Amino acid sequence: MSRVYFSSARTKKWKYDDSMPGKLERLLKEVNLSSYFEPKEWVAVKTHFGSEGAHRIVRPVFLRKVVDALKCIGAKPFVTDTVRIKGLDYLEVANQNGINHLSVGAPVVLGDGLYGNDNIMVKAGEILGEIAVASVIHDVPAMVVCSHVKGHIQAGYGGAIKNVAMGGISSRHRECGWKCGRGAMHTIGEGKLSWDKEKCELCYQCMEICPLEVIRFENDALIWDGEKCWRCGRCERVCQSDALSLPGDEERFMRSLAESARAVLSTFKPDKVIYINFLTEIQPECDCMPVADVPVLQDRGMLISDDIVSIEQASVDMLLKAVPLPQSASEEYNVIKGDDTMFKITKKPYWIQIEESERLGLGSREYELIEM
């Protein structure tokens, strides 16, 4: 049974030690980082840089605490994520959201290069076959995965598994394109975008949200470049008239997340990866969207473990006990205490990704919660 360390977001004393940054410092000492990482060893601090307009990411102050703790044991950390939009633009988004070398105290680098195609093919499983793991994450010997727990377009729940499975993978490969990258999880078959002209209101939200500008309109007709598209699904998500459809399979997607996570983690030796889940500002959408809606659940706190399945199960268990917040999507979907908030809002069977990760041997859903 794996250990999961927890510290609540509640603060009951007017002392720094009772603040969340102070509690994170104590959690990092409790897990004994020196038992995982060596002096002078490069350690990737994997997070999500967010998007322009999506600011509810893991806050830079928490990333700084992780970096400082790693430096204290002599390790050499850097903060990284993989390209979601054009590389230079993504670095600027990170900077706008407060993530830069000055704020986090370490270099901030793109895991798969400026063009999002710097990667290495790794065996994944029966669904994906092989998947393009970002070269930096593939090559680095150790990693701390810092995940913001929230909803997700397709995963329903986004935590450590989603952060590793999608965030550790490039959007495309130099030769086989999106079919070997993140898009292989998003879609089935050829993953062709379909457009219903009769339903379309010509609001152009799909065109505006596309990170690669592969959608445009000419004479009120949608034109889509399927060769360049990364199949991120944002266009379908923002279409409020149901005029766009990108085929997918929810169960297959959840299972492919587990396969991809296993592929990424297979590049590390045992006991070289730990996970920190931040159950704060729990919004209904992923941090890759161009907005950040108000939180649907009250902040819970922080979890740390070396078992990706255990920390995900513990996170979900805490969300199930959390009280839905008024004046949020929880209220719109009539979520009440005791409901599964994420499922009721997203309608996605998110638990499959956790169950499949356990089946593939990534960890156990049985855990011991140690509260500090």
Plain-language structure description:
This protein has helices at 20-30, 60-72, 87-96, 101-104, 135-139, 160-165, 183-186, 205-209, 234-238, 250-265, 308-321, 329-332, 341-346, 351-359, and strands spanning 2-8, 42-46, 76-81, 108-110, 119-125, 129-134, 142-148, 194-195, 215-218, 221-224, 244-245, 273-279, 301-305, 367-371. The protein is α/β, with parallel strands linked by helices. A hairpin with a 2-residue loop joins strand 9 and strand 10. Helix 1 packs parallel to helix 2 (60-72). It starts with a strand and ends with a strand.
Layout of strands and helices, then pairs:
Elements: E1 2-8, H1 20-30, E2 42-46, H2 60-72, E3 76-81, H3 87-96, H4 101-104, E4 108-110, E5 119-125, E6 129-134, H5 135-139, E7 142-148, H6 160-165, H7 183-186, E8 194-195, H8 205-209, E9 215-218, E10 221-224, H9 234-238, E11 244-245, H10 250-265, E12 273-279, E13 301-305, H11 308-321, H12 329-332, H13 341-346, H14 351-359, E14 367-371
Parallel strand pairs: 1-14, 2-3, 2-7, 3-4, 7-12
Antiparallel strand pairs: 1-13, 5-6, 8-11, 9-10, 12-13
Q: Write down the domain tally.
A: 2
Largest sheet: 8 strands, mixed
Strand order in the sheet with the most strands: 4-3-2-7-12-13-1-14
Shape assignment: globular
The CATH class of the largest domain is identified as Alpha Beta
Question: What is the structural class?
Answer: alpha/beta
Oligomeric grouping of the chains: single chain
User: Quick check: average pLDDT?
Assistant: 94
Helix content: 25-40%
